[in-house]
Structure formats: structure tokens, C-alpha cells
Design a protein that fits this description.
Largest sheet: none
Shape: elongated
Oligomer: single chain
Order of helices and strands: HHHHHHHHHHHHHH
Distance between the termini: 84 Å
Length: 399
Amino acid sequence: MSELAAHVGVCCVLTLWLALALRAGPALRVPSQRGLWLTVLAATVAITLFQPKVVTWLTEFGGTYRTVSLVRNLIGVLSAGLVLLFIVDSTRARRPHIAVTAGLAAAMGSLLALYLLGADRTVSRTTPQGPADPSSLYWWVLGVAHLAGDAVAVVVCRRYSTRTDDRDLVWSLRLFAIGSVLAIAFWCGYLIHLHVRIDGMLPWLSLIMSLHGFLRAASLLVPTATAFARSLTALRTTWQLWPLWRDLVAAVPHVALAPPQRTRVHEVLRPRSPYALQAHRQTIETYDALLDLQRYVRPDAHDRAHRQARQAGLRGERLATAALAGALDQARRAKLAGAPPSTPIPLPGVDRGSPATLLAIARMWPSATGTLPALTGPGGPGGPESGLLHDESDTSRRA
């Protein structure tokens, strides 16, 4: 169990420092996020100094267990105080802010005074994380300070998480609250251990502290995770929409701000704008091109594509999407062949440019342009004898 707790502790510390590094820039620029970042920073330093390997390493370079313990505990109390200040600052109330600041100064001053008086000299030298003698006021001041801060954090975070519609803030508050619950469990167990020495308890407490650290890191990384998820969604949209967007933009080039790159791999690996903006732009340009191509849709194109897609074995939503793709491909080919525009014939289901509809068409687009019976014939795709293209050729000749 001790080895597991040690490994989890190391992973926790690395995760916390990584989270702090990733969120440093955005958090320090935004006052509303700066307090949370500083709170997690203080907790990270305290948790780092709680790891046995770190304590051993510091003692090898001239430190003592008492000194490391003091620094760790002072920073831990500072972290608990910063939690309260972070919560009080959101209420913009002056008196609670003064009270928390005074309480924080009193707690840290008491710890320092008790340290200088030697009230913590019974801290175990064989177990760097071990508590002091049950009579030590030092450890009770420390434990009560943490319990007060974490208890208030649980109540306030839970309350505010039900009053906001910001999903990032909701999850940050919930994760922070769960982490505070684990911190309460840790300090309750630690104070109990002052009076009732339970063999094997410290590794479990160390594991609880590490899980608390993971949750602190997670609460800080919620905006980063959300941004990453949005980037993945935009990247997926860009990748799936690219073949349809490329073909429609080739037929209606004036709708595109920039021409397509050579392949969609280039479009993804060398984006000319952020993924979210690129996906949004391609969606709008695809819909604009679709509106323009409705002037080239033959009156019977959609019905014919629907019948031929059914003959190909498609059913349900795939059948409807394939019919749209077939009619749209007919219009694209007609414009590329030089057919004159006529009165626009709206295609069913695309009047509002739903991104989901466009993506559905894009997923059927290779089939619509290469394998559907409506678009193939003895001459191959686009050949002179292909179904809808043959009709387009007739239209061009009649024109």
C-alpha cells in the first residue's frame, strides 16, 4: 500500500504542476481565475512537500524534518486561507475579507510561534508524514484551519454551482468541492491519528491527499479540457466536410475566402486559421455554395436520385441524405458543364443550413459521386452515359 500511495503521490504532483503550467497564462490574465490558480499553486507546493521522496531529498541537502514540516504546514494553511479569500472575493464583501485575512495571519503566526517554542518536536523522524504527539497544540491549529477552509469551500462551491449556467464554472466548482471533501477526510483522519495510532493509516491518508490533488488539478483544467474538446469537434467537422466543401467551392468559387488546399491532410495539418474558425467558415461556405447551386437543380433530380439510391439498397436517413447528395451533385456538374441557371429549386431539409445536415451529406458524398447508380454508368462516374449527368448534357444541348 505504501508503494502504491507513493506512486500515486508522484503522479499527483506531476499532474498539478502540469495543470498550473498550462493554465498560468490564461488564469493570471483574468482576475476571476487568478485566485483559483494561486490557491491550487499553494496546495501544489504543500502536496509536493508532503511526498516522502521530496522530504528525504530536502533533508539530504541540509534541511530537517521539522523545517520541511513547518514550511509545508504554513503553505498548507496559506492554501486554506486562499480558498476562503477566493470565495469571499466573489461576494465582494469587505468584512468577511478582513476576517479571513486576520484569521489566516493568526493561524500562520500561531504555527510559527508554536514551532519556535518546540511544540512540534515530537514529529516522527522515521515517517516524514507522521503527526506529532497528541498533546501538540501545533497540529490542532493546523488541522482546524484546514477543516474550516475546506468546509466553507464545500458549502459555497455547491451553492454557486447551482446558480450559474456556465458549464465550465459548474464543473470547476463541483470538482473543487469534491476535492475539499477529500481534504476534510484527510485532516479528520490525521487528527484521529494523533490520539489513536492506527497501523497502516498514513499510506491511506497519503492516497486521499493525492486524490484531492488530482481533483484540484482537474478543477483548474476544466477550461482547457473544454477548449480541447471544442478543437477536436471542429477538427472532426473540418475533416468530414472537406470533400463536399472542396467540390462545391470548385463549382462556386466566389463563396470561399480562400481556395482549398491540395488535400484535406494539408487542410488539417496546416490550418490557415484556428480549427473552430476554419470549421465555421467551411460550413458557411458550403451552405452558400449549396444555395447558389439550387439554381442548377433539375426539377426531377431529387426524385430520381431518391429512387436510384433506394435501388442501391439505402434506407431511412441514409436514403434521404443520398438523395440530397445526388441532386446536389447533379447541380454541381450542371454548373461545371456550363448549363444556364434557372429558378432555384430548394432541396428538402437544407433550407436552414443545419451543420448536421451538411455533415450527413458530406458523409454520403463519396458514394453520391462515385458509387450510386444515379451517378454511374457504362462510361464511369461523370461519363456521357451516367444517369443525371446525361440529363444535364441534354439540358446543355437544348440550351
